[in-house]
Design goal:
Strand order of the largest sheet: 2-1-11-5-6
Number of strands: 11
Largest sheet: 5 strands, mixed
Helix content: 25-40%
Distance between the termini: 65 Å
Number of helices: 7
């Protein structure tokens, strides 16, 4: 390689590195998210208008295949894409220890909007990694202000705990829920959520 060409190439590489180093954290997160740099945490299928991946791969999408999911298109979100959405803090009393905790994440409706979910959708089937699935009507998702929680008490939720994502709401705020025993307030709230199917009425 000629010396001049080598120096020009090296200078370009250094300039790119310097530019990346001076980018803000949100800008870096947005760039990584756009490039799909992080592992997919949430897949949204069904009645959506903004897909970014193709159909189910029966060989490689093993968990979805074993849970008998089928789709021809989907919208996927990594951690950066979810945390780039406007976030909301809620403080429900959790059934696991009877204490109030701070959960943070985007509204479920904002995630659905980002996926291009049909605004006339009947509701959403929320599915957890263990196969537990529940249908939440669009009206209830809006009424109870469900979030897709990414953080618990200021820390990202871990796989093996309640995360990495949890579809949940602040039951304490709603009299019809707060009047129930805490163990009966979260039947519509699967933790370890990884898939949402948008269902049209």
């Amino acid at each position: 390689m000629k010396k001049r060409h080598f120096l020009r190439t090296a200078a370009s590489a250094l300039a790119a590195t310097a530019a990346t180093a001076t980018m803000s954290a949100p800008a870096l997160a947005a760039r990584k998210s756009a490039a799909g740099a992080g592992p997919v945490l949430l897949t949204v299928t069904g009645e959506i208008a903004a897909p970014n991946r193709g159909p189910l791969d029966h060989a490689l999408d093993q968990m979805m295949h074993k849970q008998k999911l089928e789709f021809d298109k989907a919208r996927t979100f990594d951690f950066a894409a979810l945390t780039a959405l406007p976030a909301l803090d809620i403080r429900p009393t959790l059934e696991y220890d009877g204490k109030r905790h701070t959960l943070r994440g985007p509204l479920l409706e904002d995630v659905m909007r980002a996926a291009g979910a049909d605004p006339a959708a009947q509701g959403y089937v929320l599915r957890a990694i263990d196969g537990y699935a529940v249908m939440v009507s669009r009206e209830d998702a809006q009424k109870y202000r469900f979030i897709v929680a990414t953080h618990l008490d200021g820390k990202p939720m871990a796989l093996g705990g309640l995360g990495p994502l949890w579809a949940v709401y602040e039951a304490d705020r709603f009299p019809e829920m707060a009047s129930r025993p805490v163990s009966e307030r979260f039947g519509l709230c699967p933790w370890g959520i990884y898939h949402i199917a948008v269902r049209k009425g």
